[in-house]
Iron dicitrate transport regulator FecR
Amino acid sequence: MNTNEIKYLIGKYNSQTATPEEKKLVEEWYERINGADLNQNQFEDTEVKKQIFSQVSSRIANKATTKTKQIKLNYTLFFKAAVILIALIAGSYIYFSKSDRSAVLTTSTKTNKKTIVPGGNNAVLLLADGSQIILNKTSDGQLANQSGVEVIKTKSGELLYRFTGNSNAKAGAINTVSTPRGGQYHLILVDGTEVWLNASSSVKFPTAFVGNERKVEVTGEVYFEVAKNKIKPFIVHTDQSDIKVLGTHFNVNTYADEAYERTTLLEGSVEIKHGDKKALLKPGQQASFNGKVDGINVSEIEDLEAVIAWKNGYFQFEKSDLPAVMRQISRWYDANVIYNGKIPAKQYTGKIPRNVNVAKLIEMLAYSGIHCKVEYNQITVNPK
């Protein structure tokens, strides 16, 4: 087996597309990586040896146990959990796995005034009377009762709106849930619609939907699973559009620092209105537009899971340029990003858990050629 075949097979294993036979072969390589029977000549003076063999052998040497069965399980879990960031540079793929190298991150020796940490369930609830409730610092239970609608923080940390038995709501009081940089939140509206907020986002909504429509306003990035109601459409208003649905699953990305507003449909159907233009989306389609270009562009999305990866605890990049990658990281880690030198014109595709600490994050990015330095709450991206 030549070097290209080895790299291709390892790539399939890391992306979880290998056949059972191919997975078994790769795992046997890793199991034997410290043994004398491994044919290391296959890896001599190759990228595979530098990027795979040395990292994995070091990891396994530190983690080895005496129980063969347990070793195999550990290897399997380790590599299945490996985070793969693929840099599309000159048509080639660079694979990397989680390791314990510590030489990548450079930090200040001074006292760190603000430690960069991954985000979490952080949000603020603004009630109709102007009072604010910091949700991540509030105990579970009822938080408010507004015209027959009670607001509850559940044991699982989400926000739930529901009618009391004697609801007499005639006009819903307006509430807003907003997340800071480094925050996310999940809430359930009184009609059963579920809403997930990404970092630096907000949703403004009535506690009770009266009249002939259900209307909310959003900023940032929000994922909806709308409760079906054929006679009362659900309308999402952004700075640039109105999205009309009856019952469906879709994602809205309307960050001000992104070039385009994007609405991606996973299930059902939605109608997008942007200015005097309209578009009807089918599942698997995405509508994109901005204020500078007239019209709505509708495209097919191959990997819908990548669009809502943030909701499921991951960064997932699909042929993204470096600024797009770092904007996501900046929002989630609440860190400022600056560039030291010219920004490389490369595209990146990959997947990283959003719960890794900043040292591990910087290490993972380095494998793709994104070299960073962290100081206080700032990430500096350096050239090679």
About this structure: The radius of gyration is 24 Å. The first helix runs from residue 3 to 14. The longest strand covers residues 214-225. Helices lie at 3-14, 20-31, 47-63, 68-80, 304-307, 322-333, 358-367.
